[in-house]
Amino acid sequence: MAEDDVDFAVAAYHDEGRWQVVELLPGLGEDVDELSAALGRFPSDVGVLGIVSIQDDFFVIVRRSGTDIRAMLSDVTAVDDFPLAGGVVELLDIVDTGGDDDPIAVGDLALLADLGMSAHDLGALCEEVELYPEDMLMDVAERLGFGSELEAVIR
Q1: How far is residue 6's CA from residue 23's CA, in Å, rounded to a whole number?
Q2: In which domain, by residue range, is 90 found?
Q3: Exposed (0-12), middle (13-18) or buried (19+): which is 132, by Cβ within 10 Å?
Q4: Tens digits of residue pLDDT in 40-68
Q5: How many domains does the chain have?
Q6: CB-side exposure of 138: number of CA atoms within 13 Å?
């Protein structure tokens, strides 16, 4: 995977009552361990979100709170082609990815539930095949309250 595969990589964190969104180096969107390590430098009272969109194909959300790391992948079929997707599956210790033909979301779909987006809603959003990852992530950001901040960074 090359850096040009990364549409965008951002960190979103809640500090002093406000969401902040900052762009991350595209290379951090290639490796889940490096992404997670980078998230550790941001302050947050609710955990830091690492949000990565890859080739208008899939997205990853990583949530780091101290040493606790939670993650989800929007489309498990990306595992064989993209190291970031494979890293998420490895991090989550998912052995059976459901076969190469099933574009389903995997991981901790409840990682945003306490912030305002249920596992059911996140899973349903990932099933919207006509939406690009950027559109899905804008929906997530809007529901969590940082839509305008994300839009300002990625557009």
Answers
A1: 12
A2: 3-154
A3: middle
A4: 999 988 999 999 999 999 999 999 999 99
A5: 1
A6: 11
Per-residue pLDDT tens digits for 117-149:
999 999 999 999 899 999 999 999 999 999 999
Q: How far apart are CA 71 and CA 55, in angstroms?
A: 19
How far is Cα 51 from Cα 18, in angstroms, rounded to an integer?
Answer: 18
Strands (E), 16-154: 18-23, 48-54, 58-65, 68-73, 106-107
Long-range pairs of 59-67 with CB within 8 A, sequence gap ≥ 24:
59/133, 59/136, 59/137, 60/29, 60/32, 60/35, 60/84, 60/85, 60/88, 61/111, 61/112, 61/140, 62/32, 62/35, 62/36, 62/88, 63/108, 63/111, 63/112, 64/36, 64/39, 64/40
10 neighbors 22 (Cβ within 8 angstroms)? yes
Q: Which of 74, 1, 81, 80 is nearest to 34 (CA)?
A: 1
Residue 153, both tokens: 């960074």
Q: What is the pTM of this model?
A: 0.94
As beta bridge partners, residue 58 has 54
Q: Can you say how many angstroms the Cα of residue 105 is from the centroid of all Cα atoms in its chain?
A: 11
